[in-house]
Amino acid sequence: MCTSSRAAGLLTGLALALGAVFTAPAAHADIPACTNLVQGAGVEVSDAVRAACTQGVHNDLQGCVSGLTGAGVPGGAANGACRLAANPPR
Predict the structure, then answer these.
(1) Which residues contact 88 (CB under 8 A, 6 or more apart)?
(2) Per residue in 43-77, pLDDT tens?
């Protein structure tokens, strides 16, 4: 195999690997933590709750809390759920 072919293959593999690393943490990764806390507060997980949790994942904490409280989640639980969405436990 020619050196240039080997280098091209290596660069392609590296690009694919890096692409997987940068795209792996999808926005949906922390929505379950948010929705689980909402459920624990006794509120049904609806589309509005999922949308609010998605805002939390994207670090829009005000939008997240506003959306969750609008869906009937108590303020403290809404705050906690949005913080979990934005900063998941490690």
Answers:
(1) 29, 30, 33
(2) 999 999 999 999 999 999 999 999 999 999 999 99
